[in-house]
Every structure is written in structure tokens, then in C-alpha cells.
Amino acid sequence: MKKSISILFIFLFFSSVFSQKQNLYIQKDVKEMPIFPGCENINPKKKKNMQACITQKLTDLLSQKLIGFESVMVEHQLAKATAEIQFIFSKEGIILGINATENSHPLLANALIKSLNSISDNLPMIRPARLKSGETVNMYYSFPVHYTVNLEKYEPRPYYPSQDIVLFTLKEKDWDYEVRLSKNNTIKVFEYKNNQESFLGRYLSIQEFESSEPYKQLIAQERSSNKTLVTKGILDGESYEIYIYNLFSKKENPYIEVVKLEENVKKTMVVYKKELEFSQSIYAPLIYR
Q1: Cα distances (Å, whole numbers) of residue 204 to 96, 110, 153, 156, 200
Q2: Alpha-carbon gap, residue 185 to 235, rounded angstroms
Q3: Which of 72, 111, 161, 238 is 20 to 30 A (C-alpha) from 204?
């Protein structure tokens, strides 16, 4: 898998009046750069050298944090994503105000903000930037991150000719939560109770959905079983149930079972080891929405 994370640090341009008013400075305004952990051997007055060192250190730290993000890119069929992250090297020696610009890709921006917050929580104190007078000051940074994945290395993704498909169903007492994947790769959740459907919400990713209650608790319960209901439905006048096995397992490969109901007796019709095979089967329309 060819993957590249390219981080280039640049500094936002603010007028001197604005910078002074907000007590924020950029590289050209300071005499000495912040000294990032691991860059102590660099003269902070040599701004380009210190900038290069900071760039390398943060690139390494973010690369370690973003190892799992490749699977998110593949899941959403994204070959490229870009986000611009902003933060302040504070005069107290910490990183503050981490956020992303509006034009950033939300999935990458969210991952970067979480990663950089985690990194900053565990960093030693950073010697802040200094003016010519020796005063320590806040320094404002902005950096774009470009994340690319070679999707050609992965198997073809199953195709479903519908706006939404059912991923799985979570059961809680007298109602069900049907979890759907939309064509724009967002997650929708619907509640079913007494044959009534209610839309509950939308999530940017399955990871965001899994961290929300009550779904987090229900998924924790599902992990104790290797069999999860996808959906129930009628096809050509016959009743079917679709199950997915090992959905929440990190050790076992998932597979799909199609079950037919005949006079309250369940009969396994077919088992699909790969989703691609199921997507091309006569049973695929059961998950269309």
C-alpha cells in the first residue's frame, strides 16, 4: 500500500495591528522560534532550521496516530483528503486552540484534531517563541495535511443500486435500531417500534456512531456474540432474515448468512464469505432502502 502523509507548516498572515491586539505573533514577528521537544539542538534564532525540525517531529507524531486512518479512507473510497489545522504555541509552553478550517475534509480534520490534542496532552513543556526584547509570546500556526491512499490495491467495492443500504440492526427491549449506510458514506439510524419508523440521526462515520450512546453499549453487547442481525424482509412472497457473523470481531473475517422462514422454521439458504458475492446475489435487494 502506497501511502503518503505530507505536512507542510505555513504561517497565517495577520496585520501587525491585529497581531498586537490579540497578543498573537507569526514567524516573521519573533526573534526566536518555539523550541519543540526533540529540537533542542537547533538554534531558535535560525527560524527555517527550527521550522524544519518542528515539521519533522510533528509529522512523525501524527503519522503514528493516523495509522488506522487508512482503513477509514478505504471505507469511504477516498483516494485523497486534505485538511488545514490551526493552533497556537502558547507563551505558557503548551499547544492551544486546535481547530480546522472550513474547507477541510471533515473525516481527516476530525482525526487530526483528536490526534493533535492527544499529542499535546503528552508533550513536555515547549519553550515558547520570544521577541527581540526577550519577552515570551503566543505564536500562531496553520498547517495543511494531505493524506493519500492507493485504492487500486484493494478489491472492488460492492455496488448497491439504492440510496441507502442496511449495515446491521441493534435490538433493545421492544425496539430496534436499524443502521444504514448512505451513498455519501454517512451513517443514518432509524428506530423501529410497533411497526413505526423514526429517524434518529446522522453520523459522519461508523466510528462516530459507535462512540455514541445508547449504541456504544449495544455494540458492546453484540461483541459477546458472533452473530448480528442485518435485516428481515420479504422477497418474492417469502420471508427472509440476513445475518452477519464476526461483524465486530478484530480476529475473525465476517461472512453473511441468508435464512428463510417457513412455518416458523428457519433454514439457511446460502452463506457468502465475501460481501461482493452477496451484493451480486438475488438476496441483495433485502438490504436496499
Answers
A1: 25, 10, 25, 23, 14
A2: 26
A3: 161
Q: pLDDT tens digits, residue range 102-133? A: 999 999 999 999 999 999 999 999 999 999 99
Q: How far apart are CA 204 and CA 72, in angstroms?
A: 11
pLDDT (tens digit per residue) in 139-161: 988 888 999 998 878 777 788 99
**pLDDT band at residue 268, thresholds of 50, 70 and 90?**
very high
Q: Quick: pLDDT tens for 16-26.
A: 333 444 589 99
Which residue(s) pair with 256 in the sheet? 244, 272
Task: Give the C-alpha distances (Å, rounded to integers) separating 211 from 194, 205, 207, 258.
Answer: 27, 10, 6, 29
Per-residue pLDDT of 38-88, as tens digits, reads 999 999 999 999 988 988 898 899 989 998 899 889 888 889 999 999 999
First to last CA, the chain: 34
